[in-house]
Write a structure and sequence with these properties.
- It contains 15 helices and no strands.
- With 376 residues, the protein is mainly α.
- It is globular, with a radius of gyration of 21 Å.
Length: 376
């Protein structure tokens, strides 16, 4: 029973699950509007890219909650294996459908293949499977992961998880605050230099992603370790509207100070409020469902969005036609994410976790037997 409890994930916060789901849905809408209204100052969801920073903040809180107390008992190998089981199946699936979308895009596929060559296409796919950047394929704006552009944030998630296991897990609270302060200066410097924080996803800005993940993850971990949760009776709908309000907050050129306020103050505050709130009834079901859907949706939608953008460039459609097709792509993205969740991600992860649990039990039994022999 003890082994089972150690390996099972602890209960998620329902409200935080719902906020994660809203953030993932907002990302899909934001990516569609990148083609509909490329000028972010005119986009109705001009700060949608900040959903990634909210994901990082949530991750710091949830990882601390799930592993601070039990990771030392599990061991680093089991911790890293758990994280791979949680994250990598969708990395693989996102790479596969991204490759298919790239090759068979009816608007740019043939031209991209002719320009890139089969060798580069296959090498990019191998790198995508292994979470290694390959920003040299044509038609993908130098994205680090051309088949699944949002995967850049997964690379950052992997790296911060490694840093958590090796350093943050045993870091005293005072040292955590020092690191948080350093990362705050770092992300502000990056934002001031760039003029905004939609950065880190492509080759020219790759190093900037480290500043984004370090600050937000450390902020979320700090909220957890210092128990800065705010007990409240706010309805989930209110917190959800506040989060959406961040994403639709008007974007202006060189508004990095506003973005830093949103990332450094509003997101940790929303996290604290969400962790201290509860939800019941149909809203609870909504939160749990969208929380489960969020990661598969995030990792499967972008190939259709690229196809949508390529269609716009080729067909030159009217405004009404654009919005009809965009709505279809949005609904199809939700459906595809749901199918990936139910038919691939959850079944595969459950199977892998059973294998992982068996391996963990065997290793503990072997260690106990060895200690018994040594004692005798």
């Amino acid at each position: 029973m003890e082994t089972k409890n150690l390996l099972q994930s602890r209960q998620h916060f329902d409200v935080l699950d719902g906020l994660r789901g809203l953030a993932a849905i907002s990302i899909v809408i934001f990516h569609l509007y990148e083609f509909i209204t490329p000028d972010y100052t005119k986009s109705p969801i001009g700060h949608g890219y900040l959903a990634v920073d909210f994901f990082f903040c949530l991750s710091g809180f949830v990882i601390g909650y799930a592993y601070d107390g039990r990771a030392p008992k599990l061991g680093l190998t089991t911790f890293f294996r758990n994280r791979l089981i949680r994250l990598h199946p969708m990395v693989i699936w996102g790479s596969v459908i991204g490759l298919i979308g790239y090759i068979w895009d009816p608007f740019t596929g043939a031209a991209n293949m002719a320009e890139a060559g089969l060798g580069a296409v296959l090498l990019a796919f191998l790198c995508s499977l292994l979470m290694l950047p390959y920003p040299w394929l044509p038609g993908r704006a130098e994205g680090l992961f051309p088949y699944n552009t949002p995967a850049w944030s997964l690379l950052m998630e992997y790296l911060i998880n490694i840093f958590y296991g090796l350093v943050l897990l045993r870091l005293p609270k005072r040292s955590l605050l020092v690191l948080l302060g350093i990362s705050a200066v770092w992300i502000c410097a990056v934002a001031a230099y760039r003029g905004w924080i939609i950065t880190g996803w492509d080759a020219p800005t790759f190093p900037d992603g480290f500043a984004r993940v370090f600050f937000s993850f450390l902020a979320g971990l700090t909220v957890y370790r210092f128990n800065w949760t705010i007990r409240n009776k706010w309805n989930f709908a209110v917190l959800g509207l506040l989060l959406i309000g961040v994403f639709i907050f008007p974007h202006f050129n060189n508004d990095w100070i506003v973005e830093m306020a949103l990332v450094m103050i509003v997101f940790p505050l929303l996290l604290s409020l969400g962790a201290g709130a509860s939800v019941n009834g149909w809203l609870r079901g909504f939160c749990r469902f969208t929380g489960r859907l969020s990661y598969p949706l995030y990792m499967t939608h972008i190939w259709m969005v690229w196809g949508f953008g390529n269609w716009m460039a080729k067909a030159k459609p009217g405004q009404q036609e654009i919005y009809v097709v965009a709505a279809c792509v949005f609904v199809a993205s939700l459906l595809m994410g749901y199918l990936a969740l139910r038919l691939y991600d959850e079944p595969l992860r459950n199977w892998l976790m059973r294998l992982n649990r068996k391996k963990f039990e065997e290793s503990r039994s072997a260690a106990a037997e060895k200690n018994g022999v040594a004692a005798s």
